[in-house]
Design brief:
- The protein contains nine helices and five strands, in the order H-E-E-H-E-H-H-H-H-H-H-E-E-H.
- By secondary structure, the chain is α+β, with helices and mostly antiparallel strands.
- A five-stranded mixed sheet has the order 1-3-2-4-5.
- Strand 2, helix 2 and strand 3 form a beta-alpha-beta unit.
């Protein structure tokens, strides 16, 4: 075991206990939203719910860590809407509809920033269309895409991947296969896991 860092060893224990590995889990949606080069030595895969307040607080931290590691880190977004959040799936579709106009991350920021406007709204669709207008999207196209079954299928595919990996809450993060536990869900914890993954890569 001397060749493994403590974090890597814990990661193996966690994933083995769950009876799954990243490779064995369903792949999730194809071409998911990403930040960073595909050949980055470290991948941070984040399962998130746009109606989740903690996810809204975590996204800026993830982006800050991404800026600090530059091309050494690739961030992959995965949808994981929780059942208790009644508008989370629609919000996910809004982000995917924006992605079709190459504005996923801008819409994600807008959704997190304005949770109070749409999360409990009786007509959330109106609030989401307003976000599209603010971003300067092609609104008729956005509205058409918002109802496309393929967007819901992408969300379902990500959720199936998360469930196979043992994700039970959001946000959940994997760093090169290491599941970051709650106690390490902060900048220091992310730095430790990323540094361990980089060290393992040599």
């Amino acid at each position: 075991m001397k060749n493994f860092s403590r974090l890597s060893f814990v990661a193996i224990l966690i994933i083995s206990a769950a009876g799954v590995t990243l490779a064995a889990a369903p792949p999730g949606a194809t071409a998911p939203p990403t930040l960073g080069p595909p050949n980055a030595p470290v991948t941070l895969e984040m399962f998130s719910d746009f109606q989740c307040p903690q996810c809204a607080r975590t996204e800026p931290m993830v982006k800050k860590v991404k800026s600090e590691y530059g091309d050494k880190l690739r961030v992959v977004f995965r949808h994981f809407p929780m059942d208790k959040h009644q508008n989370a799936i629609l919000a996910g579709c809004a982000a995917e509809a924006a992605a079709k106009q190459k504005r996923f991350w801008e819409m994600a920021d807008a959704l997190y920033r304005t949770q109070w406007m749409w999360a409990e709204a009786p007509a959330p669709r109106v609030a989401l269309i307003d976000r599209a207008k603010e971003l300067g999207l092609n609104v008729p196209q956005f509205e058409e895409d918002l109802d496309a079954s393929e967007l819901r299928e992408r969300i379902d595919a990500d959720q199936a991947r998360g469930q196979a990996l043992g994700v039970k809450a959001t946000p959940s993060v994997f760093i090169n296969g290491y599941f970051v536990p709650n106690a390490e869900f902060n900048e220091a914890g992310f730095h430790a896991a990323i540094d361990a993954a980089l060290a393992k890569k040599g």
